[in-house]
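Summary of Year 1 activities. Much of the first year was spent building the evaluation harness for sequence design. The harness presents a backbone, in tokenized form, and records the residue chosen at every position. We chose the following record to illustrate the format because it has been used consistently in internal testing since the harness was completed.
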């Protein structure tokens, strides 16, 4: 994505549809007409450089920001993005998926509904544990930097958490795809599967941002303290 702040925001989104989901996390509202990324970001109090760096992670798995890009990042903008992202997962995506799964489980015979909710609850808990781990480590380190100090965070276990989330996802989707009777809410199952896969991909991208943008940024700033 060879985008610059001068590109029209509408053109950027039409070329990369998944980026639409990024807008609320930056407080950017639709209806920006022909304005550029720089203009739209300025109206929302967002750094266009940081916005585009996050967007690149949603387009390219291999994108890694340079030291100069990291150095230029705005600390308050980073904190705002993270806080809004976690609120989006907790208050929007996860409750939406959970409500659909409960409805499907209520229509299942015997132990199938119980099993579906058990794996759904496990998946939700793994995601929440991952979010809390970020808040107890990355968030606190960023908050400390904002106050001009260094926070010594405990060792993080991102790799294990990612593996746990993937395992629970596989168990959950296997029930929806393979084991529920074919007469059980086909349309709703397709919709919730699509939601779950999109959430999981979003979380994967979020983890890339965390590991290859935010953590290097924190390390760079802490070294300069």
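For this record, the design step produced the sequence shown next.
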């Amino acid at each position: 994505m060879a985008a610059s702040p001068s590109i029209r925001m509408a053109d950027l989104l039409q070329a990369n549809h998944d980026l639409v989901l990024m807008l609320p996390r930056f407080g950017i509202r639709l209806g920006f007409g022909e304005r550029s990324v720089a203009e739209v970001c300025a109206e929302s109090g967002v750094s266009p450089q940081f916005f585009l760096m996050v967007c690149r992670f949603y387009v390219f798995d291999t994108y890694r920001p340079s030291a100069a890009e990291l150095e230029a990042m705005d600390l308050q903008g980073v904190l705002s993005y993270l806080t809004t992202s976690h609120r989006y997962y907790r208050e929007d995506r996860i409750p939406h998926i959970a409500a659909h799964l409960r409805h499907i489980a209520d229509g299942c015979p015997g132990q199938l509904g119980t099993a579906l909710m058990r794996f759904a609850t496990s998946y939700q808990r793994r995601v929440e544990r991952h979010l809390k781990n970020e808040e107890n480590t990355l968030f606190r380190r960023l908050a400390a930097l904002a106050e001009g100090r260094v926070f010594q965070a405990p060792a993080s276990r991102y790799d294990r958490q990612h593996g746990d989330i993937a395992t629970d996802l596989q168990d959950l989707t296997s029930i929806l795809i393979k084991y529920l009777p074919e007469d059980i809410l086909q349309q709703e199952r397709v919709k919730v599967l699509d939601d779950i896969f999109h959430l999981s991909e979003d979380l994967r991208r979020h983890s890339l941002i965390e590991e290859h943008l935010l953590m290097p940024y924190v390390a760079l700033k802490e070294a300069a303290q």
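The CA atoms of residues 97 and 195 lie 7 Å apart. Quantitative recovery figures across the full test set are reported in Table 2.
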